[in-house]
Amino acid sequence: MQTDYVQRFLFEHLDVRGRLVCLTGAWQKMAAGRGYPAPIAELLGHSIALTTMLAANQKETGRITLQVQGSGPVRLLVADCTADLKIRGMAQHEGSDPSIGAGRLALSFENLSTGQIYQSLVPLEGSTMAEIFANYLERSEQRVSFLRLLADGDAVCGLLLDKLPGADARDPDGWNRLCHLASTLQLAETVNAQPYGLLVKLFPEELLRVFPIDPVAYHCPYNVQNVERVLRGLGREEVESILAEQGEVVIKNEMCNHEYRFDRAAVETLFN
What we know:
Largest sheet: 6 strands, antiparallel
Number of helices: 10
Helix content: 25-40%
Radius of gyration: 21 Å
Oligomer: single chain
CATH class of the largest domain: Alpha Beta
Order of helices and strands: EEHHEEEEEHEEHHHHEEEHHEEH
Structural class: alpha+beta
CATH architecture of the largest domain: 3-Layer(bab) Sandwich
Number of domains: 2
């Protein structure tokens, strides 16, 4: 059975396009060792599903980053996906309350070949990631969409439908019909299921065109060379002062959940 994928599809007679994502192994690898409480993991899973579906629609080599900064117990939420669907993400939080509070949503599109970055900022409006992103689409892109996000510790899934400009002219009731059917999607249905079969089951009366499945993977490698460059940039005097005070230099990469430790011998090697 297909796992860790995005399935793009189109309703031939309705002018509606969609994306279905299901993540199991990739999501479990990303969440492993972080100790997120279930409500925080669910919120991060929703963000990862959303970012992955957005990245699947990108034609250029690049990266999409969704960042939520809030005043509530969840202070920062970051989900990141490249155009070839390599995911990573993290959450900064206090306790298990998934409330974000007041703040802003930033969505960045980075072209890795040119270095250009395009960013949209909107205030947080809504109590869930689906509501927050729906408000983003309305404010930034004047786009009508349907979004369903589901997650637990084992799997993440999402369903995104986009209403194209000619949809109502082709079928006045088509959009409402699809939204009603899409709202019945359950997380358990997406796990260990072939996406085409799942879509046919979900929309039994509609003519679907499906595109090749896009595989998704977690990618956040251990990279000590980057950390060493940062420490050299700080300078030997600054690094020596940290070493004298703490006995070792510890660098935490929260995005990848990696910890880098440099003792006296490692610091000597670094600067010699």
